[in-house]
Specification:
alpha+beta, Structural Genomics Hypothetical 15.5 Kd Protein In mrcA-pckA Intergenic Region, Chain A, about 20% helix, about 35% strand
């Protein structure tokens, strides 16, 4: 299984955009199709909402790829 880490800047990222930003899909549209087809799970449960808000601490799985979403560290200062 391939393990990826995604550093989240802000409160959340939409699921289809997460798939695009991590390189799992070529585009947000491809991400939407993948989610609609039932191929994506969030925290172990199937997720069919294409723009579901993914927050730090959640884990997204697509086939043999597992994406751990982490909070971005605050810049020093």
């Amino acid at each position: 299984m391939q393990q990826l880490e995604f550093r989240l800047i802000g409160e959340f990222v939409e699921l289809n955009q997460l798939l695009k930003l991590t390189g799992v899909c070529d585009s947000g549209g491809a991400g939407k199709m993948l989610v609609a087809g039932g191929g994506v799970s969030v925290d172990g449960k199937a997720e069919l909402r294409k723009t579901c808000k993914i927050r730090a601490g959640q884990v997204v799985s697509v086939g043999d790829v597992r994406i751990s979403v982490m909070a971005a560290e605050s810049p020093p200062g």
